[in-house]
Specification:
About 0% of the residues lie in helices and about 50% in strands. It is mainly β.
């Protein structure tokens, strides 16, 4: 078990190919603000070198998505709060440092969908990062391995669906298509997008 200190919430978990376990979420600090948090455990469940590591310098930020990259790095889908939630993607090296070659901004890909909230991310078979955000509509985005928006994906890097659903989680199927779960009129629903 990992305890970051106060009110902690885990939103996603992933197992590295060699058995290490990474958990992400938010940890409330003494002032009651949520901080991005990553915990990495050994294959036996004991604390690893990243256990209890906090990412965000500001408050009320949340990690909603996590996946492991083939180089052992960790890619996170986060909502940063700056008056409104803005979805970003960050990549950490296997040792937990920011991968400064990712996104062109010290390991952070810029706001991927202004006015939307991050739902989840996943790594496609080609290594590109597929994410889902929600706002007035559900939208997906695609980033290169380096955190740059993929050319030709949707409109301005976002592909929209008109499904009136509150998206909750996403994974990528065997054909690299996003499968999104959530609620539609209070009932559980699953949709699969074509891209």
């Amino acid at each position: 078990m990992v305890d970051f200190g106060y009110e902690d919430v885990a939103y996603d978990v992933a197992v590295h190919p060699y058995g290490r376990i990474s958990v992400v979420g938010s940890a409330e600090d003494a002032q009651g603000e949520a901080r991005l948090a990553v915990a990495t455990l050994t294959r036996g469940g004991g604390p690893d070198d990243l256990a209890g590591w906090s990412l965000s310098p500001a408050g009320d930020d949340y990690v909603y998505g996590l996946d492991i990259v083939d180089d052992g790095g960790i890619v996170l889908g986060v909502n940063l709060f700056s008056g409104d939630f803005d979805p970003h993607v960050v990549k950490l090296t296997p040792s937990g440092a920011f991968d400064t070659s990712f996104g062109g901004r010290d390991g952070w890909a810029s706001n991927v969908a202004d006015g939307y909230q991050m739902v989840d991310i996943d790594i496609r078979s080609d290594g590109r990062i597929l994410g889902v955000v929600r706002g007035d509509q559900i939208a997906s985005f695609l980033l290169s391995r380096r955190g740059v928006p993929a050319e030709g994906y949707g409109m301005s890097g976002l592909a929209f669906t008109s499904t009136p659903m509150i998206a909750a989680a996403m994974y990528v199927d065997a054909q690299d298509r996003p499968v999104i779960t959530g609620l539609q009129l209070g009932e559980p629903h699953v949709i699969r997008l074509q891209s």
